[in-house]
From TrEMBL:
The gene is miaB. InterPro entries: Elp3/MiaA/NifB-like_rSAM (IPR006638), Methylthiotransferase (IPR005839), Methylthiotransferase_CS (IPR020612), Methylthiotransferase_N (IPR013848), Methylthiotransferase_N_sf (IPR038135), MiaB_methiolase (IPR006463), rSAM (IPR007197), rSAM_horseshoe (IPR023404). Belongs to the methylthiotransferase family. MiaB subfamily. This is tRNA-2-methylthio-N(6)-dimethylallyladenosine synthase. CDD domains: Radical_SAM (cd01335). Residues 2-119 form the MTTase N-terminal domain. Pfam families: Radical_SAM, TRAM, UPF0004. [4Fe-4S] cluster 2 binds at residues 156, 160, 163. It comes from Uliginosibacterium silvisoli. Its main location: cytoplasm. SMART domains: Elp3. SUPFAM superfamilies: Radical SAM enzymes.
Length: 456
């Protein structure tokens, strides 16, 4: 049996794409996934260009498998994702042993690219941006467990000055409403109970309202309508989405938090900075005051809402006052979690031309302060949950103790708890994939402990 090894870099979108690569090559090439590159017949690197020196890290990893190609000339080595989209044929020029280079929008063409490489003897590069073709050519969803990701749109049209995504994934393209709902209904039939809707700017999803074959008009379905439709699918009991943009958080989406109980009380809403001057330089399109007003409206609609965010520390020109404004925003909002990074220039973006004169040591110091404060706030929120009963979706055995179970709360905290393995192992096994009530008893470093609340 032939084997496929994939190394994935970056975000949940890349994880989703890698899973689709497994499905596509499993269906077309009869490949099965392996965790060992030495055993593989096909090796793929699904890359991300958000972090610093992403290109060099890719070439470093390629160098580590070069000897495998020398030992086995039939081995296929491929590079996909955003670095592939950014570098294109330059990857093959620098690493001639790479067989296929494909972008995020052409991963569905992998079987054809591999076949053409084998028949022609030449490396294949396809980093084009076919709009909806990728979604139309995906195999049926295959899931294991009670949770699943569903990609609903691709790309970004915001053109923030620091971000490479519009150039590597293209502009925003929304998947048709019927296709999304059909996929989610299929997942529900496979006992999926929680779905996470994915997109670079997921709440920018739009779809035209069909008014007949020759209808003219600009009426559209918006993201709030999609949430309502997913909410109506009977066996789907919990809805998440990521990543959203503040400019797309409409009044209708805010209203959804008041009327859709299946929509979780946890929102990831990237702000990036707390200084209006820095936000303007980033071309984010909102002010700190507007962001805070939006959070207030959301918490009126859903009082127990927890909010996580993205932060860039050390953006070119960031002063001490700018950073303190970010710390003030963190305090005011009470963020629960963050993905925070030191700024690194991405080639081809407008911000790459800005003077970046903040010392690296100072950036590291600021990042540590920011992360420490958010961790402290998250701990306070976790401690407030002790003694409460939480509805938990049981995902499987605990990673630290296979004799315990692990699940996730509505506000996205992992809870480890004892099932009933010794006295009733069959009942405990049946809990996996279902919702249970758990009383929270303690706060750990990155999780909670709880006790299963048994029905009378």
């Amino acid at each position: 049996m032939k084997k496929l090894y994939i190394r994935t870099f970056g975000c949940q979108m890349n994880e989703y794409d890698s899973d689709k690569m497994v499905d596509i090559l499993g269906a077309n090439e009869e490949l099965v996934k392996t965790d060992t590159p030495e055993d593989a017949d096909v090796i793929l690197f699904n890359t991300c260009s958000v972090r610093e020196k992403a290109q060099e890290k890719v070439f470093h990893d390629l160098g580590r498998v070069k000897h495998l190609k020398q030992a086995n000339p039939d081995l296929i080595i491929g590079v996909g994702g955003c670095v592939a989209s950014q570098e294109g044929a330059a990857i093959v020029s620098r690493a001639p042993y790479v067989d296929v280079v494909f972008g995020p929008q052409t991963l569905h063409r992998l079987p054809a690219l591999i076949d053409k490489r084998r028949t022609s003897g030449r490396s294949q590069v396809d980093i084009s941006f076919p709009e909806i073709e990728k979604f139309d050519n995906m195999p049926p969803a295959r899931v294991e467990g009670a949770t699943a990701f569903v990609s609903i749109m691709e790309g970004c049209s915001k053109y923030c000055s620091f971000c490479v995504v519009p150039y590597t994934r293209g502009e925003e393209v929304s998947r048709p409403l019927d296709d999304i709902l059909t996929e989610i209904a299929g997942l529900a039939a496979q006992n999926v109970r929680e779905v996470t809707l994915l997109g670079q700017n997921v709440n920018a999803w739009r779809a035209p309202i069909a008014r007949g074959e020759h209808a003219a008009g600009t009426e559209i379905y918006d993201f709030a309508f999609l949430l309502e439709c997913v909410h109506d699918i009977p066996d789907i009991e919990r809805i998440r989405y990521t990543t959203s943009h503040p400019r797309e958080m409409s009044a209708r989406i805010v209203e959804a938090y008041a009327k859709l109980p299946k929509l979780v009380s946890n929102l990831h809403l990237p702000v990036q900075a707390g200084s209006d001057r820095v936000l303007a330089a980033m071309k984010r399109g909102y002010t700190t005051l507007e962001y805070k007003a939006l959070i207030r409206k959301l918490r009126v609609a859903r009082p127990d809402l927890t909010v996580s965010s993205d932060f860039i520390v050390g953006f070119p020109g960031e002063t001490e006052a700018d950073f303190e404004a970010t710390m003030k925003l963190i305090e005011d909002v009470g963020f629960d979690n963050s993905y925070s990074f030191i700024y690194s220039a991405r080639p081809g973006t407008p911000a790459a031309d800005l003077v970046d004169d903040t010392p690296q040591a100072l950036k590291l110091e600021r990042l540590a302060r920011l992360q420490k404060r958010i961790d402290e706030q998250a701990t306070v929120i976790s401690e407030s949950m002790v003694g409460s009963q939480q509805r938990v979706l049981v995902e499987g055995p605990s990673k630290k103790n296979p004799e315990e179970l692990a699940g996730r709360t509505d506000n996205n905290r992992v809870v480890n708890f004892v099932g009933d393995l010794h006295t009733n192992p069959q009942r405990t096994s049946r809990l996996i994939g279902s919702f249970v009530n758990v009383k929270i008893t303690a706060v750990m470093s990155h999780s909670l402990r709880g006790e299963l609340v048994l029905a009378d």
